Amino acid sequence: MSRRAAAELLCGVNLRALLDSVDAFLFDCDGVIWKGDKLIDGVPQTLDLLRSKGKKLVFVTNNSTKSRTQYAHKFTSLGLSVTQDEIFSSSFAAAMYLKVNHFPPQNKVYVIGGEGILEELQLAGFTALGGPEDAEKRVHLKSNYFFKHDKNVGAVVVGLDPHINYYKLQYGTLCIRENPGCLFIATNRDSVGHMTDLQEWPGAGCMVGAICGSTGREPIVVGKPSTFMMDFLLQKFDINTSRMCMVGDRLDTDILFGQNAGCKTLLVLSGVTTQSTLDDSSNSTQPDYYTSKVSDILTLLGE
Amino acid sequence: MSRRAAAELLCGVNLRALLDSVDAFLFDCDGVIWKGDKLIDGVPQTLDLLRSKGKKLVFVTNNSTKSRTQYAHKFTSLGLSVTQDEIFSSSFAAAMYLKVNHFPPQNKVYVIGGEGILEELQLAGFTALGGPEDAEKRVHLKSNYFFKHDKNVGAVVVGLDPHINYYKLQYGTLCIRENPGCLFIATNRDSVGHMTDLQEWPGAGCMVGAICGSTGREPIVVGKPSTFMMDFLLQKFDINTSRMCMVGDRLDTDILFGQNAGCKTLLVLSGVTTQSTLDDSSNSTQPDYYTSKVSDILTLLGE
């Protein structure tokens, strides 16, 4: 693959051209809109401005700890008016993956991850086990102890799980190893995430890596950079991907996702990626544009 | 690499030839000597027979939950007389790796794994943190919460940890990501282990996979199939590896370890490997010999 041209720093001129050439902005959330539970400065005004210019806004997040309903509440609580229909989370994507692949509704789904995954699975009509209710479960490593698992589990969905434990790891790996045809679905493989505003924490890639390391299986990834979610976006909004701009803080998920789908891409340095990572010779992912944070859009337009 | 000839089923004839051609037997433990806390039938008599024929016995285990002293106690409690000097565990190997690589004693080691690793590290003169004392620690994922880690940690050692939690994962990955030059050492990468006699459980490969998935780093592996431990065996016992036979239940660790070191190899089917796995066309690791369990040696010799 030929190397893309180096990213252009966003400025008044290329920003105006970008605004003219796209009809929708796809935003990642963690590190772009907020960090943990703190809104990033200037976000509400920037979103208002883009809406006032007639742009569609869509929020595409790999964070699977919440459902779309829960995300809508988070947006509201931070003073942003965003509806559930504008949100595409990897928890929703996991449920939709099973739906479009005709997962038999009599089969069950074991979840390593948060409430959001269970909620989306249940909304889609599936029976989900595990998740938060297994957070405090313990195993008994003694002679004659037999760990039972449900033979009707036909898929294990793995996302970020701050309550990861050996019980869940044994449950998930037993299903994958012993239930014939059991699917292994990863909401995403982000290495780290801003679970709090002050620092990074292990992301879903950590839990997914644990399952890979014990089963020798590779997952089906439904979140970014997989373009699975894009199919839903395209069905919903009648906009060509070349007239969309993906805005994110990660090269290996957001920017790659945008590029895989044929969107324009804007990297913001308010999350996990630093200028030196972007510039490093080992980095082969170059967005079209980069800037320090989304509210630079306001400043550069002089609004 | 050319494919080895298919393994020969052990019989009276090739067993006698094997006994004539080797001076030492290296045994894996889990799935060979015991399963969980249950001794496999006929093991004591078989070891006695081999000792009576003048063979050196060495026990090489990837299981890092115990130190060598703790292993010696386990052997004794099961009625086997094995001394600490005959045991080489991956917990010991981790400590020796740091020792031979001149790890500065003023630096600390963070442990994801069992008491055995901490004990071996301390015996070797190192300061170890983590392990069992972090089993019940929890994180607080709220705004302004800052997770502190020791900047003097210069190595993270990861082994099988049934008390794995998000606290340990954050601690270990922060050290690897943020402490300059911090080593990432895996006791081993076994996908599963017989934590109980009735079934398999996630092995160290699970915890190691979690750290890889969050740091993007690959570990230094000190247990089987790495030949790091063999260097110590060779220093200790003045026996050429061609006159050693590695006996184990795993193709990807035990048999590969034996072959990497130039030993003869005997696979036993009393642990994780089944006859169909051995015979499967996707399996490229063929031991010299295979048999159902170590006590077949007794039967085949008519003793």
From TrEMBL, chains A, B:
- List localization entries: Plastid, Chloroplast
Gene Ontology, cellular component aspect: chloroplast
User: In the record's cofactor note, how is the cofactor described as bound?
Assistant: Divalent metal ions. Mg(2+) is the most effective.
Which Gene3D superfamilies does this entry report, sorted A to Z? HAD superfamily/HAD-like
Q: Which Pfam families match?
A: Hydrolase_6 (PF13344), Hydrolase_like (PF13242)
Catalyses: 2-phosphoglycolate + H2O = glycolate + phosphate
Which annotated residues bind Mg(2+)? D28, D30, D249
Q: Which InterPro entries match?
A: HAD-like_sf, HAD-SF_hydro_IIA, HAD_sf, PGP_euk
GO biological process: one example: photorespiration
Swiss-Prot/TrEMBL cofactor(s)? Mg(2+)
Task: Give the residues the record marks as binding substrate.
Answer: K224
Cite the entry's keywords alphabetically: Acetylation, Chloroplast, Hydrolase, Magnesium, Metal-binding, Phosphoprotein, Photorespiration, Plastid, Transit peptide
Q: Which GO terms describe its molecular function?
A: metal ion binding; phosphoglycolate phosphatase activity
| SUPFAM superfamilies (alphabetical) | HAD-like
Q: What is its EC number?
A: 3.1.3.18
CDD domains referenced in this protein's UniProt entry, alphabetically: HAD_Pase_UmpH-like
Q: Which residues form the active site?
A: D28 (nucleophile), D30 (proton donor)
Family of the protein in this entry: Belongs to the HAD-like hydrolase superfamily. CbbY/CbbZ/Gph/YieH family.
NCBIfam families for the chain: HAD-SF-IIA, PGP_euk
Its biological purpose: Photorespiratory enzyme that dephosphorylates the 2-phosphoglycolate produced by the RuBisCO oxygenation reaction.
Q: What is this protein called?
A: Phosphoglycolate phosphatase
Q: Tell me what organism the protein belongs to.
A: Corchorus capsularis (Jute)
